[in-house]
Amino acid sequence: MFMFMLVLKHACCVCASAEYEINGHCCHMCAPGNRVLWHCTVDTSTTCVSCSASTYTDEPNGLEMCFSCSTCDAGLRIQKACTRLSNTICEPLKGFFCMVRKKGSCKLAVKHSQCNPGEYIQQKGTASTDTVCGECTNGTYSDGTFTACQTHTICQSMGRKQIETGTTSSDAKCEHTPNGLVIGSITGVVVVVVIVVIGVSVTQFVIFKHKSKARPGIK
């Protein structure tokens, strides 16, 4: 008899999927966006009311209080505002990526890593992944902001002397071209241009004189 009563008591507390148990009774749940105002009794059904501003329920429930809407923490911004039926959806700000996500909303965002000098950006960070850095090898360099390592400048190929060896984080440095050499080069170019202009002018003058003599009546 005792076992029968125990089984009967247990059976009376097993509620259907759309019900919740309270004080030994199975009550109908409130719909999403609502909460319980009065629990059901033997004679009455559950009384539900809408969630107030800045609160929500996103599932059928037997709650007496709606959940408070979440706010987006540092490094996050609102992707979708909170409603009676759903919580706030947050997404990372530009330059951040999401590390903790729950129910489609980012809960924790971290700033993208920066590559160090001697490293290049192998893969740019996204809203869900961090920046991936790669190391430059000998003969190349990057200050940490390049998307590919750059080849060191070869000063000898430009006829200049190397004054500082390149590293994985900086380019080789060449001596500056002497001012006298630059001025001499410019002067040489100007002289050549002047000679060409004079030559063209003399040629045109000779041709003109020749044509004038060939035509009678033209003095």
From TrEMBL:
A GO cellular-component term linked to this record: external side of plasma membrane
Residues annotated as transmembrane: 181-208
GO biological process: defense response to Gram-negative bacterium; defense response to Gram-positive bacterium; negative regulation of alpha-beta T cell proliferation; positive regulation of cytokine production involved in immune response; positive regulation of T cell migration
Signal peptide annotation: 1-18
Top-rank lineage group of the source organism: Eukaryota
Protein name: Tumor necrosis factor receptor superfamily member 14-like
Species annotation: Sinocyclocheilus anshuiensis
SMART domains noted in UniProt: TNFR
Domain TNFR-Cys: residue ranges: 50-90
Record InterPro entries: TNFR/NGFR_Cys_rich_reg (IPR001368)
S-S bonds: 51-66, 69-82, 72-90
Alphabetical list of Pfam families matching this protein: TNFR_c6
